[in-house]
Amino acid sequence: xxxxxxxxxxxxxxxxxxxDGNVLLIDYIRxxxxxxxxxxxxxGGECGACTVLVDGEPRxxxxxxxxxxxGHDVETIESLAEGTRLSALQKSFHxxxxxxxxxxxxxxxxxxxxxxxxxxxxxxxxxxxxxSGNICRCTGYVKIIxxxxxxxxxxxxxxxx
Length: 161
Prior knowledge:
DNA polymerase, domain 1; 2 domains; 5-stranded mixed β-sheet; 5 strands
């Protein structure tokens, strides 16, 4: 397959990489960009572990072609922390035990980040709806919802990172 140049902004940095037209966004992120925080769970768009933000909107990287991100702003879990300082959402997931085994956590956090950017004070039902495409096999989602609520409170108090 013939390669083309993919130009996008990944975690705030402009990139231009030669990629095959059939490369999935998750493979681009993990294999070409070398960012391994985004996880491949189901390989079919059913679990949400691969959730990234494209222009601020959650997108499943395992069913999106890398070429679909041409000219767009893509954010992965690595974009949220500032140096060694966790974001409010990452702190909340850690402190409120929103992650168990941690496999789904990057996708959960990115879906939550997308939700909180649109709705800084979501109800429990809005959080459930916002995370409905993300599956966790370890929890009953209570701690995840509490983590998102805590992050919303932190952000309202000015703890953006």
